Every structure is written in C-alpha cells, then in structure tokens.
Amino acid sequence: MQLIRPQTLFPLLILLGLIAAVFALTSGSAEISPVEVWRSLTGDAPDNVRRLVVDLRLPRALTAFGVGGLLAVSGVLMQVLLRNPLAEPYILGSSGGAAVAALLAMMFGLGAFAIDAAAFGGAMAATLLVFSIAQGSGSWTPARLLLTGVVLAAGFSAATTLLLALSPDQNLRGMLFWLMGDLNYAYSPTQSLILLTIITAIGIVTARDLNVLARGDLQAAIVGLPVAGFRLLVFAVTALATAISVTTVGVIGFIGLVVPHLIRIMAGSDHRIVLPASALAGGILLVIADTLARTILAPRQLPVGALTATLGVPLFLILMSRSRHST
C-alpha cells in the first residue's frame, strides 16, 4: 500500500532537501541570511561571509548529504541481502573494525590521512572476515551471515572499550566524537557524492532483481537470477559504501535502519522507488541532524551520531507500532 505516489514523493523530497540546504547554510554560531548565502554562492558577498558559506558550510552539508544517502542505500541493500527488516549497514561489524583500526592509529599519534586509511582498511577487513567465517566450507546463508556479524561486532565493541580505557586522557574526546559521528573535518564531499550517485544508479538498473531477491533465493533462481553472484555483488557494494561512510565521518547510527522503513511505509517496497528515495531522505536527515548538532549549543558542537539516535529511536518505535497495527 502506497501512502504517497512517486509523482508526489520525489518533488516533496527535493523540496525538503532545498529547505535542509538553506537551513544548513544559514544556521550556525554566525547567522547568515538566505540573501547573503545566495550572494556568497554567486561571488558577490564579502570575503569573510563567502569563506564561511562556500569553504566551510557548503562542503560540510554536501558531505553530510552524501554520507547520509550512502548509509540509507546501504540499509536498503543490507535488508535485501539478509531478508531482515532490522538489518542495517553496521550489522556485519564494519563499524567495529573501522573503530578498532582508527583508535589504534589515534593512539599511535598518526595523522588524519593515516587514521582515515586505517578506518577504511579496518572496515573492509572486518566485512571480509565476517563473510569468510560465515561461508566456512560451503555457501553462506543470511541467518549465518547475520549471526557471525553480530558476534564479531560484539568482539569489536569489547576491543574498542579496551582501547578507550588504555588511551591517554588528551585523546579521549577526539576518539569519542569520532565514535559518535563527527563532521568537523568533513570537507571533501566529492568521494561520497560520486559513490552515492553510482550506487543509486546501479540500484535503479537492478531494482527488478532486488525485488525478486527480497522474496527469496528460490524464487530468484526460478526467474533465472544468478543468486550467488548477485548476492556477492550486493554484499561488496554495501561493504564499500559503509566503509567510505565510516571513514569520512565516523559511526552514525539509525539512518540506515529508519530511512528504508520510512520510505517503504510511504511508497511501498518497489526498489525502483525505495532506493533513490532512501538516498534522498537519508542525505536530508543527516544534513538536518548535523545542522542541529552544531547550532543547538553553538559555538559548542554535539556529536551528530547522538542527534541521529535521538531522532531515530522514537521514529523507529512509531514506525514499528504503525506496522504492527497495519498487519
């Protein structure tokens, strides 16, 4: 059942995106009017205003949009892969592997590039480890993959706690902010936006296959879909998107879980609609959350992951309640 038709949903999301962008560019410790924002984008504003908008707020907002979209699309793909509506991008331990590797790099006093490289390597290594253990000597199943991911994620969580306990006091604040999501240094949106565009385009092209796979392996095999190869492709794309997201801004929860649910309730389960709509909605949600994180207690900034959890928990409970009453 569709509450909103695609002809209405996408214009609504684009409008919300524009509103979120204006909110992000005008809000902060220094308030800037929409007119000054427009003048900054066209090059007519004073240098100090233009630098604030073009060099600081705009790249940060674009990064938030790209990462939020990647997390939402990863959530959609992971729920198809595991056929579990509670699956989310971090469920296979990628965030835990990234956290352990990044914290180790921070403890050794390495630079920002080394920390990013360590986080990316840790995320990919953890994902490959989960897949290899779940596969064992035969083919893996969604339940086996999910169980392996949950167990290894618990192990990574314990390792993260140990590293925090052993870290010098002066490093703890930066470590905790990274673990809870931090866009303070996220000023390179190109990578996440390009990857989001590519994954969304591929997802739309293969949406019919995703629809079939979501109904089960047997039905997918009956219609001629190469199940093993296609599942591996979905797994690899999800792992890459999650690793890039964690590397860029740290661990930000609930977007990959809540946004796909919200879109499916509003627009149905056709992935030709769910994937692009989730990409837009996830990006918008993270832009709004990041703007609130840096404006609520300005000039102090809150970890954006805490804001997404604050917004995501009640929203998810509402969605689950609505879903239960509708069945």
Q: Which helices and strands, and how do they pair?
A:
Elements: H1 6-26, H2 34-42, H3 47-82, H4 94-107, H5 112-135, H6 142-166, H7 169-179, H8 190-205, H9 207-214, H10 217-222, H11 227-249, H12 255-267, H13 271-295, H14 304-326
CATH class: Mainly Alpha
Element order, helices and strands? HHHHHHHHHHHHHH
Radius of gyration: 20 Å
Number of discrete domains? 1
How many helical elements? 14
Could you say what the CATH topology is called?
ABC transporter involved in vitamin B12 uptake, BtuC
Give me the count of strands: 0
Strand content is under 5%
Low-confidence stretches: none
Measured distance between first and last alpha carbons: 12 Å
The helix content, as a percent range, equals over 70%
The biggest sheet amounts to:
none
Give a nutshell description of this structure:
α3 (about 45-80) crosses α12 and α3 packs across α13. By secondary structure, this protein is an all-alpha fold. About 80% of the residues lie in helices and about 0% in strands.
Care to describe what's here?
With 327 residues, this protein is mainly α. It has a single domain (6-25, 64-326), classed as ABC transporter involved in vitamin B12 uptake, BtuC, CATH 1.10.3470. It contains 14 helices and no strands. It has helices spanning 6-26, 34-42, 47-82, 94-107, 112-135, 142-166, 169-179, 190-205, 207-214, 217-222, 227-249, 255-267, 271-295, 304-326. Helix 4 packs antiparallel against helix 5 and helix 12 (255-267) packs across helix 13. The protein is globular. The relative contact order is 0.17. The mean pLDDT is 84.
